Amino acid sequence: MLICIINPNTTKKMTDRIEAAANKVASNGTRIVATNPKNGPESIEGYYDEVFCIPGILEEVFLHKDADAYIIGCFDDTGLDAVRSITNKPVLGIGDSSYHIASCLAGTFSVITTLDVSVPIIKNNLLKRGFDRICVNVSSVKIPVLELDNDNSNAALSIEKEIEKSINYYKSEAIILGCAGMADFAEKLEEKFSIPVVEGVSSSIILAEGLIRMKKNTSKLGGYSYPNPKNYSGIFKSFSFK
């Protein structure tokens, strides 16, 4: 199997962390290709940033046509529907994948993300995918994405405090870490709190491998139909679908 995981931002250091997290759970014989766009924001924090990521994500899909599945390595599932429209291969988002995995392990879950600006996006995705009924809370640790691995940010301690609140006040039975940059925290947090702590990178790899083995493809009826042929102008000329 060849799985292409696309970090939608341009920070290579984060791409490398995503690749390492993916390889930890990938099966023998599964090859992971981790990549990121050359153009776009260095991190994705809110609606404005995600708009400028999508063309770069699509370009990476076109460049890796030999992949058996694609994963969008941003918890906001940036560009997920657009990518599903240009390929019949399985396409997963790490946010959507983590919701599915958590729902298999617990009756309720909470999502802990980086900044408040991401909370409405995640809530909208939960509603869109039908997980809003079992997600009891979405909160942030108020730490920018690129500061998560900065020891001075106290990210681990901040996440722990949010988990305690989710368990005590919202009766969460599982926790989802709502950023690809949080993947490294999952194992220790699960040991500390003795409940499932789910992160999206490993969740999406497991689901992608399963879909490939089942030989399932993205439906081309309805919303994920291939785009109608038309010309795109200016800097988007290369995205014309023939």
**Which stretches are low in confidence, meaning pLDDT under 50 for 5 or more residues running?**
none
Structural class based on helices, strands and sheet pairing: alpha/beta
Summed up, the domain count is 2
Q: How many strands in all? A: 8
Strand order of the largest sheet: 2-1-3-4
CATH class of the largest domain: Alpha Beta
CATH fold node name of the largest domain? Rossmann fold
Compute the average pLDDT: 95
CATH architecture of the largest domain: 3-Layer(aba) Sandwich
From the spread of the alpha carbons, the general shape counts as globular
Share in helix = 40-55%
Give the biggest sheet.
Answer: 4 strands, parallel
DSSP summary: helix tally:
8
Order of helices and strands: EHEHEHEHEHEHEHEH
Q: Provide the β-strand percentage band.
A: 5-15%
Rg for CA atoms: 17 Å
End-to-end gap: 28 Å
